[in-house]
Each structure stands twice: as structure tokens, then as C-alpha cells.
Amino acid sequence: MNYVNSHNTELWNFDVFPDVLQNSLFLNPNRIHPLKQREVSHLVQLAVTDPKINQIIIFGSTTEFRCSSYSDIDLFIEREDEQCIVPNEFYDSNSELDIHYSKNLGDKLRKILFDSGVLVYRRI
After folding, report:
1. Does pTM top 0.70 for this prediction?
2. Do residues 69 and 105 make contact, with C-beta atoms less than 8 angstroms apart?
3. Number of helical (H) and strand (E) elements in the chain, helices listed first
4. 75 CA to centre of own chain
5. Strands, DSSP E only, in the chain?
6. 74 CB-contact burial (10 Å; exposed 0-12 / middle 13-18 / buried 19+)
7. What confidence score (pLDDT) does residue 54 get?
8. Cβ contact 48:65 at 8 Å
């Protein structure tokens, strides 16, 4: 399902750390604030280990200039099995994670994702 507007020209375009660019599975790293790029890259690497995770979309302050080192990471996860679980290692993140799942997707969150969500991982 297409949850994001991939042609949104109002999204920020940040510089990307060279080590983050090495993660070829991390889509649109330039749309993630530099303070959170390494953490999101790590979450993408962990998602690969779970064959049921189809895609991850980041939204909220992590995709905006107002992001700080204290900001949480808002994630939307679409799973093939519609369960509400992620690998335990997700919770080893330095930032607090606010995880939403497709099973519980409401109209308000659907609009937020479409307007300002950033697709960072899609299972091929």
C-alpha cells in the first residue's frame, strides 16, 4: 500500500553522513535529520532480519529541522502478518521509539504519513 507522497517537495533535504550512505537498504536518508540518521540506519538493518516487516516510514520531528538529540523517533511499520511486534533490538535505540502499526492505522495518521512521512525501508 502507498502510504507516502514520495514527490513532496516540502520535505527537508539534509546532508547525509558517509557511513549512513553505505547502507544501501536505507531509502531517502537525506530526508532524515542528521542527528537521527545513524539510528534510523540501524533500525533498517534490524528490519532486514524480520522477514515479516514490509516497510518502515519515519515521520514527525525526525524528518524536520526542529529535531534535537532528545527527539523521539516516530515509526510506522507495515508487517505482512499484521502483528504488532518488532525485533527486540529495536528497543536498544538511543532514542525513544513511538511505533505505530498498519493494523491500527487511523485516518489522522494516514494523512500525516501521506503528507510528511519518509519511506526508509521497503522489503524487495
Report:
1. yes
2. no
3. 3, 4
4. 5
5. 53-59, 73-79, 97-101, 118-122
6. buried
7. 96
8. no
Task: Say what the pLDDT of residue 15 is.
Answer: 95
Summarised one tens digit per residue, pLDDT across range 14-63 is 999 999 999 999 999 999 999 999 999 999 999 999 999 999 999 999 99
At 68, is the secondary structure helix, strand, or coil? coil
- pLDDT recorded at residue 1: 64
Between CA 113 and CA 35 the distance in angstroms is 21
With beta carbons less than 8 A apart as the criterion, state whether 94 and 39 touch. Answer: yes
* Neighbouring C-beta atoms of residue 87, cutoff 10 Å: 14
- Tens of pLDDT, residues 75-107: 999 999 989 999 999 999 999 999 999 888 899
- How many CB atoms are closer than 10 A to CB 94? 10
Query: Looking up cell 526542529, which residue turns up?
Result: 66
- Distance, in Å, from the CA atom of 56 to the CA atom of 34, rounded to the nearest integer, reads 18
